[in-house]
Write a structure and sequence with these properties.
Shape: globular
Order of helices and strands: HHHHHHH
Helix content: 55-70%
Structural class: mainly alpha
Radius of gyration: 22 Å
Number of helices: 7
Strand content: under 5%
Largest sheet: none
Length: 187
């Protein structure tokens, strides 16, 4: 067999597997949110949820810190399968709750409607936490909120602009002066 023929066969086989793989596994992302895998629509949705939790003020918000992308990576790479399923189903539940409460999707809702919905979900999650057994899974909104806070305050934007930050830390000073209202330290 000649090298050219072998390369043609490999290209045909790998291209066929790649194209066919998308059809067989249904990994193609569509505009719907809350599927079994993350798509671009899910990342945009999570960015808006995070921005509602930590909006931009004098400092950048969660969307500027790309917290939606952070959530996708964390859920895919660190969550167990059962928790991934809860998180994915939670995206759909949040979207349905918004449609039920406001008659429109979360992305179409006003900031006030989003805040009202997430406040109600936060209360629901806290009530669930009080009554859940140790073997019960976490509430999906608790996962989203925790990832939002973790992703934001470990991002460049959160650590350097929302918290006090010194690029080169000095010695430890346990009695450093603190005034009420000062931001927390990132370093």
């Amino acid at each position: 067999m000649e090298r050219r023929e072998l390369l043609k066969m490999i290209a045909a086989l790998t291209g066929g597997v790649f194209i066919g793989g998308e059809l067989l596994t249904s990994c193609k992302s569509g505009p719907m949110v809350g599927g079994a895998t993350f798509g671009e629509a899910d990342t945009a949705f999570l960015d808006e949820v995070a921005e509602t939790i930590l909006p931009a003020t004098k400092t950048p918000g969660a969307k500027a810190a790309k917290v939606g992308q952070f959530m996708v990576v964390m859920v895919n790479d660190t969550y167990e399968d059962k928790d991934q399923k809860i998180f994915h189903a939670g995206i759909g539940k949040l979207e349905e709750a918004c449609k039920k409460a406001n008659g429109k999707s979360f992305l179409e809702a006003t900031p006030e409607q989003r805040t009202t919905l997430l406040t109600a979900l936060d209360k629901e999650a806290k009530d669930y936490q009080k009554s859940k057994k140790p073997e019960d899974p976490a509430h999906y909104f608790t996962m989203m909120k925790q990832l939002t806070l973790f992703g934001y305050f470990t991002s460049k934007e959160g650590a350097t602009q929302a918290l006090r930050y010194i690029a080169v830390p000095g010695k430890y000073d346990g009695s450093y002066p603190y005034k009420k209202g000062d931001r927390a330290w990132a370093t």
